[in-house]
Amino acid sequence: MQARLRWGIVATGNIAGVFARELALLPGHEVVAVGSRNLDRAKAFAQEWDIRRAYGSYTEVAEDPEVDVVYVATPHSDHLGTTRHALESGKAVLCEKALTVNAAEARELVDLARGHGQFLMEAMWMRCNPLHLRLRELLDAGTLGEPRSVHATLGFLADYDPDDRLFAPHLAGGSLLDVGIYPVSFAHHLLGAPDTVRATGTLAPTGVDASAGLLLGYAGGAVATLTGSLAGPLPNTAYVSGTEGWVEIPADFQAADRLVVHHPDKEPEDVTVDLLGVGYTYEAEEVARCLRAGLLESPLVPWADSIAVMEVLDAARAQVGVRYPNDANGPDGPDGPGGGDSV
User: Which of 87, 102, 114, 220 is the most exposed place for a label (fewest CB within 10 A)?
Assistant: First the structure.
């Protein structure tokens, strides 16, 4: 591996800009290429972030010989095709969450990465956050006793626009894949895969979920109550309760630098960490660490976890009544029709 990890960014939306800004904080990382379906947008993005090469397609980024890792920041509907092409082009991939539109697509990408011997990681940056790693350590040390419940919410009011990626079915919009995935991944990190999934929600006029609430049940009796919403702001906090105490993570829990440990008859204990940037730096460093170690998957965001989270989201979507074109093997090529370029 090169002394500096050379990134190619696919798509030029908001999240791609955040990631480029975070990479600029890391001396061992460099963005060398960016691609968009609109060359002018790629050139503007390249100028803003001092990137040497701009391409008018996604495929050219993956085929650039100077790119070590492709960061896929397209809408969800394009994750499968874009990531597939990058893996087949011999590139490591960090793909934005949700990894794919459904669990079947996630399994396909995992099989492809394994078959080609290429690194693949879902960009669930929360799982690389030092505070969340510290929380896992507290649970493993028995600080809370036996975990019994998880409660987490994440939501905001999104202005309704049927053409926006958040509300467009052909782009796999909706609250579950955009914000609900954070509470679901949080619960999975602490409790594992559930035995039962119960979900209810509201639909936007386009048919995607505007909000969804989930109740997950576990074999040992633990439960998780999770909510994601595009229909209004939520506290965006998280709680983990055990037989001997509980932990509170203030808003915004997915990017927090502080949690509070509570025990009966004791003073609350603050646990804090210093974060570099907003937190995307840690997933980039995890990619670099894994590549240096010759790993194909990250221990912090393993393939099995990404698939298991997608299985929960699939079950919830089915119960809420949301179906995407990708569920019927719709167009998913890296530069195919019907896609978007903004996340």
Answer: 220
Catalytic machinery residues: 97
Residue type, 45: F
* pLDDT tens string 267-292: 999 999 999 999 999 999 999 999 99
Nearest to 152 by CA among 270, 271, 250: 250
Domain boundaries, the chain: 5-124+324-328, 130-272
Half-sphere exposure of 184 (CA within 13 A, CB side): 33
In what helix (H) or strand (E) does residue 269 lie, and over which residues does it extend?
strand 269-272
Q: What are 251's two structure tokens?
A: 């808003």
Considering only the top CATH level, what class is 130-272?
alpha beta
Cα 2 to the center of its chain, rounded Å: 26
Superfamily of 5-124+324-328 according to CATH: NAD(P)-binding Rossmann-like Domain (3.40.50.720)
CA distance 40 to 336: 19
The structure tokens 């078959």 sit at 115
Whats the size of the chain, residue-wise? 343
The DSSP secondary structure of 189-252, one letter per residue, reads: HHH-S-SEEEEEEEE-TTSSEEEEEEEEE-TTS-EEEEEEESBS-----EEEEESS-EEEEPSS
Q: Which residues pair with 72 in a beta bridge?
A: 10, 95
Sort residue 184 into left (φ over 0), alpha (ψ -120 to 50) or beta. alpha
Beta bridge partners of 242: 147
Rg (CA), the chain: 19
Tell me the per-residue pLDDT of 144-190, one tens digit each, with 9 for 90 and over.
999 999 999 999 999 999 999 999 999 999 999 999 999 999 999 99
Q: Is the pLDDT of residue 339 over 60?
A: no
Residues 6+ away with beta carbon under 8 Å from 266:
none
Ordered alpha helix ranges (H), the chain: 14-23, 39-49, 59-63, 79-88, 103-116, 130-140, 175, 181-191, 280-292, 303-320
pLDDT band of residue 337 (cuts 50, 70, 90) is: very low
Which pLDDT score is estimated for 328? 76
